[in-house]
Amino acid sequence: MDLIVYVIVGFLVLFGLVTMLSCFFTVGNMNAAIIEKFGKFNRVAYAGLNWKMPFVERIAAKVSL
Question: Alpha-carbon torsion 47, 49, 53, 56, what sign?
Answer without folding.
Answer: positive
